[in-house]
Design a protein that fits this description.
Helix content is 33%, strand content 24%. The relative contact order is 0.18. It is of the alpha/beta class. The chain has a single domain, classed as Purple Acid Phosphatase, chain A, domain 2 (4-Layer Sandwich).
C-alpha cells in the first residue's frame, strides 16, 4: 500500500471560535489516529493552537490529549512536522523535546514522491504588517517573558480574535487579490518546477492551478471545515 502524506492547519485550539475546544481536540486526535494508519508523514502547517508561548520553565496549560497523541505517533516512527503560524509563532523547543515533532520556523521546499512542494503557514508572504514584525522581534519576546502569564495570555487571546475578524478569515478575494496566490506566481518565476504550494492561514478551501504543472492549495481550517489535504498520487482536499 502506498504511504500518504497529510497536511492540516488552523485548528486554533482554545479559541473562542469553538463552542467546545476540548471536543475539537478530541476530534483532532481521532483524525491523527486515522492518518497514522497509512501516513508516511504528517505536516501541521501552523495555528494548531490559538496561542502558544513558551516561557523558560512554563508552557500553556491544556492540550494534553493532543500532545500525548503526537508523542505516541512520533514514538511509533512516523514523522510529524510542525510549521509555526502567526498564532503559535513563539514556539521554541518544547514540542520537539517532549513530543518528537520536527519544527520549521520558515517556509520550506520539500520533495515527496517526485513532487516538489512549497510549504508554509502563509502569514507574512507577500505582505508586511507592524504586528507581524513586532511578534518576530527577539527583543519584544524577551520583554514579554518578564510579564506574568495572567496578563499576557488574556491579551494574546484578544489579539487572536481581532486578527481573525480583520483579514485571516475573509472570503476568497479572487485570484488577482489573494496574497498567497500572488506570492506563489512570483515564486514560480524563480523556481518553475514547484508542483504544489500548500498553505494554511487564510481559512478557505482552495485548489487553484496557476501553471500547467503547478497548483496553489489552501487547506481550510478546523473552525468551519474540519479539512485537510492528502498527497498520494496527487494532492486532494478532504473533510473529516
Amino acid at each position: 500500500m502506498n504511504k500518504k502524506v497529510y497536511f492540516l492547519s488552523d485548528v486554533h485550539l482554545d479559541s473562542k471560535s469553538h463552542t467546545d475546544s476540548i471536543e475539537v481536540e478530541r476530534k483532532l486526535c481521532r483524525w491523527l489516529d486515522m492518518a497514522r494508519q497509512d501516513a508516511q508523514a504528517i505536516y501541521l502547517l501552523g495555528d494548531i493552537f490559538d496561542f502558544w508561548y513558551e516561557y523558560k520553565y512554563v508552557v500553556p496549560k491544556g492540550f494534553v490529549r493532543l500532545l500525548g497523541k503526537l508523542a505516541e505517533i512520533t514514538d511509533s516512527g512516523i514523522e510529524v512536522h510542525f510549521f509555526i503560524g502567526n498564532h503559535d509563532i513563539w514556539l521554541t523547543d518544547y514540542l520537539a523535546k517532549e513530543c518528537g515533532l520536527i519544527l520549521h520556523f520558515k517556509p520550506e521546499i520539500i520533495k515527496i514522491n517526485d513532487k516538489k512542494i512549497f510549504l508554509a503557514h502563509g502569514d507574512g508572504l507577500n505582505e508586511t504588517s507592524i504586528p507581524l514584525m513586532m511578534f518576530r522581534s527577539k527583543f519584544l519576546r524577551a520583554c514579554l517573558s518578564t510579564i506574568h502569564p495572567r496578563w499576557t495570555i488574556p491579551l494574546a487571546h484578544k489579539w487572536s480574535n481581532y486578527s481573525r475578524k480583520n483579514g485571516d478569515t475573509q472570503d476568497y478575494l479572487g485570484e488577482d487579490k489573494e496574497n498567497l496566490i500572488i506570492f506563489a506566481k512570483q515564486k514560480l518565476k524563480e523556481i518553475p518546477d514547484i508542483n504544489y504550494f500548500i498553505f494554511g492561514h487564510r481559512h478557505i478551501l482552495l485548489d487553484l492551478p496557476i501553471a500547467e504543472t503547478s497548483r496553489v492549495i489552501i487547506i481550510g481550517d478546523w473552525i468551519s471545515y474540519f479539512s485537510y489535504a492528502v498527497l498520494e498520487d496527487d494532492v486532494r482536499l478532504e473533510k473529516f
